[in-house]
DNA sequence: TCAATAAAAGATATAAAGGTCTTAATATCT
DNA sequence: AGATATTAAGACCTTTATATCTTTTATTGA
């Protein structure tokens, strides 16, 4: 590289006039909002199993997420009835025991990211359509369906339990 | 809804003061740049199999993508040696026959999106780490590995051939 | 009923992705 | 050599995602 561009970080590249030029888009399966949302929900589930509510402060501390942004996401999850919120002293977020048993990962993902991840075309055609498939359709739908099945079958209880027993973690 | 917010489209929601509030992030497996990049590469491969070059204009027409943006993506792919570009009259983009045989889908994805999609943690922890796994680690890595394998095994030739025979499509 | 606490709602700010436009470089043909 | 065709490079603009800050609403308990 003989020119004067400046690499600020892995993601930020500026040229000599300090204009942003290009960096690989760090694509992810779920949006950050959804990642925080899943982690927050799992923490709340874990606390709820112990008969406790989780406050916003506790949540953001335990999952290492930005507080105000996490609040917004929890609002969404409360509207979607994934979690229940309680205002005032000793308030916070909770999930009913029977919901922890029955709720699936897919409900959280749906509430935040919608279902495009397992319905949309892998190459971005308007919709996935087996009658007029894109070149990756067959290979892609197989993986997408596995993802869909996994999300729809995985219960909150199972994930919250592995957290409780210290087998898995929400931050590092 | 008794308030005055205005739903402009599926993705754009404004409140009474015309401030953007919130909409589900349409998450996708690959970035749009990557989707266009794959589609463009497949079209170029198909033309190359017929001994022809593909011009930017022809590409954007055939894959239905924004011209200037597609040009940027093709620049990236040329730098990554996924495609070869030729300037001047009768110029355009091409892929050597032997590369069409050997090149895998993963090379295109890597050139544009990098490898986070099959290396990163599904819940957004700094890195995926089996020693201190997140709650979805085991279920997630299984799917991610299937995706990785699929991308690494799928050859351009196979996809370009299915296009040529009219079994699959790059736009609709 | 009042102070304190905690979430909801709203406004605004910043960063990244997606996209356009203009000029430069390079190849081809006459 | 000059006109033309085509991609490369750079600057810039727009939209969406991510994030923060401020004000309002609900709940509790002294
Ligand atoms: S049409 Fe592209 S994935 Fe189904
Ligand atoms: S640690 Fe989260 S996917 Fe491996």
UniProtKB/TrEMBL annotation, chains A, B:
One Pfam family this sequence matches: Rrf2
NCBIfam families per UniProt: rrf2_super
UniProt-recorded name of the protein: Rrf2 family transcriptional regulator
Domain of life: Bacteria
InterPro entries, alphabetized: Tscrpt_reg_Rrf2 (IPR000944), WH-like_DNA-bd_sf (IPR036388), WH_DNA-bd_sf (IPR036390)
Source taxonomy: Bacteria, Pseudomonadati, Bacteroidota, Cytophagia, Cytophagales
Organism, as annotated: Roseivirga thermotolerans
PANTHER family, alphabetized: HTH-TYPE TRANSCRIPTIONAL REGULATOR YWGB-RELATED, WINGED HELIX-TURN-HELIX TRANSCRIPTIONAL REGULATOR, RRF2 FAMILY
PROSITE patterns referenced in this protein's UniProt entry, alphabetically: HTH_RRF2_2
Stretches assigned to coiled coil: none
């Amino acid at each position: 590289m003989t020119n004067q561009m400046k690499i600020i970080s892995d993601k930020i590249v500026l040229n000599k006039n300090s204009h942003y030029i290009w960096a690989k888009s760090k694509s992810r399966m779920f949006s950050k909002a959804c990642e925080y949302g899943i982690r927050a929900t799992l923490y709340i589930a874990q606390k709820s199993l112990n008969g406790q509510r989780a406050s916003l402060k506790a949540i953001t501390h335990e999952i290492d997420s930005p507080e105000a942004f996490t609040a917004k996401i929890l609002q969404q999850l409360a509207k979607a009835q994934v979690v229940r919120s309680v205002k005032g002293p000793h308030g916070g977020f909770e999930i009913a025991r029977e919901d922890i048993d029955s709720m699936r990962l897919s409900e959280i993902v749906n509430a935040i990211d919608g279902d495009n991840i397992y319905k949309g075309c892998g190459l971005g055609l308007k919709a996935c359509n087996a009658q007029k498939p894109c070149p990756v359709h067959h290979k892609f739908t197989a993986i997408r369906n596995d993802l869909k099945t996994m999300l729809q079958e995985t219960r909150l209880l199972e994930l919250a339990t592995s957290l409780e027993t210290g087998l898995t973690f929400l931050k590092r």
